[in-house]
Structure formats: C-alpha cells, structure tokens
Amino acid sequence: MNAVTVAVNSFVYEAFSSGDDIESYEEEIKVLAAATALHDTNKYIREAHGFDADGNTETAFAVYFGEHEDVDNEGDDFGIEDDFLGPGYRDDILYLVQRCEIGEDSTESRRSSTAFRGLERYCRIGDQVASIAQREGVRDVAGKLVEKFGQDETHIKTFCALEQPVLSDLLVGSTKQVIAGEDGGDVYGVVIGSTTDTVVYLGEDIDRDDLESRVADLVPERVSEFGFSCKLNWNSFDYDILAEVAIPLEDKEKIIADAFRDLLHDGTAGVEGFEHIPEEFDQYFPVLAKTIYLDGRDEFDDPEIQDAYEQIYDEQGGQKAKIHFIAHLIRNYKQHSDFLSDLSKEVRPGLHDDLEPQSDAISTAVDRFFGGDDVRPLSSKSEMCFLCGRETDVKYQKGLSAIYRTQEYSRRVPPHAKYKSICEVCNLEYALFSDICDQSGVSTNNAVEVAYFYFDEFLGDVRVRGRRSGSVIQDETIDIDDPEVTSSLVGPQYFLQPFYVLGENHRMAVIRQIMQAAQQSGMKVVTGRPFTRFDGADTVFADEEATRPQELLGLDEVERFGPLPDFVGEEDRTDSHLRRALALFKIMSMVGQDANMRNPYLQLDRDTFHDIANFAVVNHDNATNLSDLREYFRTYHTDELMQMNTIAERGVDLFGKQYNSKYKKTKVFREAIDAFLSGKNQNMPDDQLVEYVESQVYVAADREDYAGHVTTEQAEAFVEAIRSYLVENDLYDLKKLSDWEDALVNSYYYAYDQLLYNN
Question: Its domain of life (predicted)?
C-alpha cells in the first residue's frame, strides 16, 4: 500500500499543473497503481501459492492471474483486472513491473509498445521508498526523495506526538490538510507520507510559524466534528466540557438545546413527554439553563411569570420546579415570547462569558504538538494531571459513568484527597474519546480499553478508512466497518476502537474478535489503555494490558498475519501468527460451548499437545473426532503428536485394539505412568527404573487374556516410547510427572483413538 501511494503521490506532484483536470490523468494513475501493487508478484505467489518464479516474469503473472496449469487458484487476488483497472493492460503492467527494480530482468517486455513509458520512474520511487520506510525509517525516506527530487522540493516536518492519542492523530491529519491546501489556504505541496510525529511532502517549504497558525485555525473545525455534551438531568445542569473547549458559541448553544430536547422528548420528573418543541425555542434553552439551574433564579419581573413559577414550585417542590417551569414556558411559548426575549438579552452576555474558556485547550495542544512546551515542570501531586502529569488545578469530576471514576485510586492523588486533577488538554481528549465511545456503542460504565488499528509506522498519505473509529465491539462481537482502502489526501495514522471489559474471560473474547478484524483488514493492532500515547509495534498484534492467561498461551503478542511459507529456512520460522492464535481461540470456544462453560478462555493455560488434548478430552464429548483440533495438532504440535502416536502404536502392538471404554484404552499406559511415579518416588537409578516399568507393563498386559501373546520386546518398545516423550517434553521428573499424569493419560487416549479412527 505504501509503494502504491508513494508512487501515485510523486507522480501527481510532477504531472499536475494548476488548472489541470484530474480525470485527464485517471488512466495513468490507475495503471501506475496497478503496476506498483504487483511489483513483487514473484514474492507474492511464492508465499500465497508456493510457486517459486524466477523474477517478475510472464509465468509469474500467469500464476497470479490464475492462468497457470500447475497452480489451482482463482487468480487476481488484488482485483486489478476485475474491479480496479479492467482488462487490456496486462502487457503495460508487465512492462512497468519489470522496470521497478534496476536489476530486474526486462527481456520479455523489451519490445513492448506501451503508452505508459515514463511511469517506471514512479514505480521505482514507490518501491524504494516503501522498502526504506520499513527498514530504515522516515528520515531515510526523506533522504531518498532528495535524491529523486532535490533538496529544495523535499521537506520533512517533525513534531512532538502528544500523550493524548485522539488529539495527536487529529493534529497530524490537520497538518497534512494544511500542506495540501485542504483548509482553503495556499497549497504547499503533495504529502508523501507521515508518522505520528513527522510529515514528509514534496513542494514548497512552509514557514513553521505559518504552518502552526493555519493548523491552529483548522483544528477547532475538526474538533467540532466530534459530539460534545453538557451534563443535564431533571434537577441539575453543568456546562462540563463546553466551558473548556474553544468551539463556536453557536455550536455550544445547539448542544445544550439538543440535550434539553432529548430530556423532554420522553418526559422526565413527572413532565409529560413533548412530541413537538418549536425550533425557535432552541435559542432559549441555554439561557434558561443558566438562569434556572446555575444561577438558581426564582424571582422574575413579569408578574404572570412569577405567579406561574410559584404555583409550579408549590405543586412540584424546589427540585422538580426547574424542569416543570421550562416545560410550562414551552407549552405557552407564544404567550411568553416577550419575557423570553427580554430574559435572553439580559442573560446571554453572562452565558457567553461562562462558555468562553479561560484557557484554550486546543491552542495548548497545538503549541505542544509544535514543540512549544518541551520541558515539563514538576508539580506536587495535588497539582498534577492524573493522566499526563502536567500542572493543573482543575478537579476531575466526571461522575460514576466516567471512563475513569472520579474517586478511583490514582498514584497521583494523595490518599485522603477527594478528587484527582486533570489538565485542559486531557479534559478535551476525554471529551473526544467519550464521543468515539458513544459512536461505537461502548458503555463507559465498565472498564474501557482501546485497540489502535494501523497499517504501519510510516503511512503513505491515503485515507484508509472513512471514519475515525470502527463501529461496535459489544459482548463477543466486533464490527470494524469499511475496511476497504479509499483514496484521499488526508487521513489519520491510526484508528481507535474502544471496547469495554467485564472480566478476564470477556476480555479474551474481545481480543479474539480484534484479531479477526486485524486479519480481515490487513491492519496491525496495539491494544492498551485510553489516554496513553500510541506507539506502534514490530509485531502485527501487541497487547499492552495482557492478562496472565494470554501470556501463558502466547496470545499477548503475535508476530505475523500468517505462517511463513515452506521455502523459508527453519532458523527464520515462527509459529507466532494470527492464524494460529485464532485457531487456538476457536478450539477453546468450541470445547467451552460443548461443556457449557461460563469462562472457556480461562480453562486452558498451556499451548502444548498434552495440555490441549487433556482440555478437549475432559470437556468435549466428541473430542477425538474434532477436525479443527486434529488440524491444530498436525500443524502446530507435529513432533509431540507423532511421539504420542508412536506410543499409541506401541500400545496397540502390546495391548491390542480396544474399542470399549476409555478405561480399557488407557489401562496399560496408566500402568506405565504409575510405575514411573513409583520408581522415581523410590529414587531408582534410571536403568533400574526403566527395567522396573517394563516389568510392570509386561505383567499388566499379559494379565489380560484378550491382549494376545505379549513379548518383552513389545513392553520394552512401549516403555521406551513413553520415556522418550517425557524426556523430550521436560516431564521426566517426579513432580512434573505427577502434576501432568492425568493430562498425559488423556493425550494418550486421544492419540489411541486417532489410531483406531484412521485404521
């Protein structure tokens, strides 16, 4: 994706002139994007289809497009011809692909008569820059662009990524928007890509002060796209974040009016619900909120209004009188319009003073982003923001439904203090993140965490999703909407998906869904606590709040999306990938459902053959016939499975095929384990121990008249297979063998049943 976006953006920079029509370049852009997407076709078909092509040849293309007789695939996995470009361009694409890299063999396309000569320059730029971004980082990206476009046209702007991830992402996006002229100002160039603290672009240099000024003007507009709210119920009102964020006053008044509309629509505190409230009344809701709730006014110059208020007070009491009085004014709006108009003229100036923030959190965030506050002074705990540690004297009072409870423990709160403190920037971040939670349907009444979905540390400048956040993770479901790539000049670096946690098992269920979403979208994920700075990881999945069960099962960190192909050397192989993690999750869920477990993800604590086999056999009525379990063992526990299969084969030789109870199938194996335990408990030397176990096994097998003619050689082979398994799996001592006795018996039963099933 980075190769495609860098190639297209660099082409756009050089090809476009003022007044050009984008449609006149559409064909070139599509061909360039298609060629860059296929610039590693040979590597792709090796990993996806196991076909080893010698370079990006016609044969490699035939495999990719599903036209090679030796490979059974539908073809065109990226949808180049089917969905994006259409047919008729394959020779053009091959011509460009064979010129992406200097050392590429271009013999096959040497005499091609293509109309797209010249685009190979941008294919090479895309390929080289994407590789450098992955290996070396953003500064070397800028260095490569200097080689291609010159020092005067290549620019890298660095910033200070904020601890507040929503604001930090918004500031990076706003910076790119300003450079591209998307704020309505001068266009300075074409953005090539960015990280959380760096933007690289081609064009004219922009003065840093001018850039900061334009970003500061744009960010309030971007912030106002979020949904802010005041605190309102039938007997209380508070401006909350509205008094602290610098968005237009008319937007704040509308938010207050909408809150009253929502409260009154269904009725409250004995007020009958309103089906219709005149739109022209909205202008008076903020005025009445200040007058009635905040100022506590109960005396009015208008006698008719005073009489109405006193009557309502007598009937409803002092608390309910507030909302009932406002309801009375709505019902009699035309009759009291003069009173409302006069009250508005009197109160609105004070209302606006209340809503004008004493300090502008947006400006402070912009200043920090541009490096205006690099040195952070130390403050006492009572004056320190409990989220970021900045100096503040504002008390954190968010109530019981807050993401962080008002009176929850914090290391930055003295033991007997009632409230934490929160700085203006974290308070703004809180409002923004709360809106994302609301959009995603995530209740803040439970513990809230966040998953950061992203493609890479360095992201070619393209909007990869249409929204700031995904939609819903509720219970055990997740729906990350719109995973398709859609092109735009401005886009975020990462996408926040909040989720709530009810307990360790529920959290594991949600982690499973997050992994599935990552696999489906091709995005990497880091999960952690909200209000902490986003940092990418070298892995495709990393959990900063991983629980002990996750760590034990290797589900706290996943290195790859899928397994390495067969041609990769053993020294580079790893089984830490999403496909394995999701297969393990499926087994736990499947077994747990069969056993009606309330917490299935907490029942398994080791990813070993004998541990999983024991878990399945004990809890699933048909464990030995589960195809998913069989495939998991064959793929990820091959050695252990083969060793136990060998034991089972020796057991059949010794004891015969038993088709009855589990007791009969495992009897001779249990005799062997009991003998090992008895001998080790007596501190027998190893040679003596093996002889002792062999004798016990021989006697036990020979005692059964259906076992056939038992030989000492069969007993020796059976015991040696067991001993080898125990040694290889580090179970050959008294304590470990005692601890794992039942699991070993059940894993033998699983292998024995597989042997009967296969034969």
Answer: Archaea
Whole-prediction pTM value? 0.84
Q: If we measure between CA atoms, which residue out of 67, 86, 9, 3 comes closest to residue 38?
A: 3
Strand order in the sheet with 189-194: 154-158, 198-203, 189-194, 459-460
Please give the DSSP secondary-structure letter assigned to residue 82.
Answer: I
| 375 pLDDT more than 60 | no
How far apart (Å, rounded) are the C-alpha atoms in residues 439 and 471? 7
DSSP class of residue 441 equals T
**pLDDT given at position 478:** 43
290 touches 351 (CB < 8 A): yes
Tens-place pLDDT, residues 102-113: 777 778 878 778
User: What distance in Å separates the CA atoms of residue 640 and residue 84, rounded to the nearest whole number?
Assistant: 47
Measure the CA–CA gap between 308 and 50, rounded to whole angstroms: 83
3-state DSSP of 662-725? HHHHHHHHHHHHHHHHHHHHCCCCHHHHHHHHHHHHHHHHHHCCCCCCCCHHHHHHHHHHHHHH
Report the range of poorest mean pLDDT among 247-261, 377-391, 456-470.
Answer: 456-470
Tokens of 706: 């259906």
The yes-or-no verdict on residue 471 having pLDDT over 80 is: no
CA distance 300 to 278: 23
Interval 483-495 mean pLDDT: 51
User: CA separation (Å) from 553 to 564, 572, 603, 758?
Assistant: 20, 21, 11, 30
Task: Please name every residue paired with 714 in a beta bridge, in sequence order, or none if there are none.
Answer: none
CB neighbours of 241 closer than 8 A, spacing ≥ 6? 228, 229, 230, 427, 428, 430, 431
Which tens digit of pLDDT belongs to each residue from 421-458?
888 899 899 889 988 888 888 888 888 999 998 888 88
Q: One-letter amino acid identity for 281? A: F
β-pairing verdict for 447-454 and 236-238: unpaired
Q: How large is the average pLDDT for residues 162-188?
A: 92
User: How distant is the alpha carbon of residue 419 from its chain centre?
Assistant: 32
The ranges assigned to domains in the chain are: 1-135, 148-225, 247-355, 441-579, 608-758
> What does the chain come to in residues?
759
| Separation between Cα atoms, residue 620 and residue 750, nearest integer Å | 12
DSSP assignment of 302-327: -HHHHHHHHHHHHHHHHHHHHHHHHH
Which residues make Cβ contacts (< 8 Å) with residue 502, sequence separation at least 6? 446
| Highest mean pLDDT (candidates 48-62, 449-463, 623-637, 652-666) | 623-637
Per DSSP, 281 falls in state G
Which of 311-315, 408-412, 632-636 has the lowest average pLDDT? 408-412
pLDDT band at 568 (very low <50, low <70, confident <90, very high): low
Q: Which residue in 260, 250, 240 sits closest to 326, CA to CA?
A: 260
For 294, counting Cβ atoms within 10 Å of its Cβ (0-12 exposed, 13-18 middle, 19+ buried), the class is: middle
For helices 424-440 and 165-179, the axis angle rounded to 10 degrees is 90
Listing DSSP states for 634-672 in one string gives HHH-HHHHHHHHHHHHHHHHHH----S-HHHHHHHHHHH
pLDDT at 488 over 50: no
Other residues' Cβ atoms within 10 Å of the Cβ of residue 488: 12
- Read off the pLDDT of residues 309-331 as tens digits, 9 standing for 90 and up: 999 999 999 889 999 999 999 99
Contact in structure between 41 and 80 (CB atoms under 8 Å):
no
- Predicted local distance difference test score (pLDDT) of residue 477: 43
CA–CA separation, 701 vs 477, rounded Å? 52
Does residue 508 contact residue 492 with C-beta atoms inside 8 Å?
no
Residue 38: HSE in the Cβ half-sphere, 13 Å Cα cutoff: 35
Output the six-digit token pair for 451.
Answer: 């998953």
Work out the angle at residue 68's Cα, subtended by the Cα atoms of residues 65 and 73, and round it to the nearest 5 degrees: 60
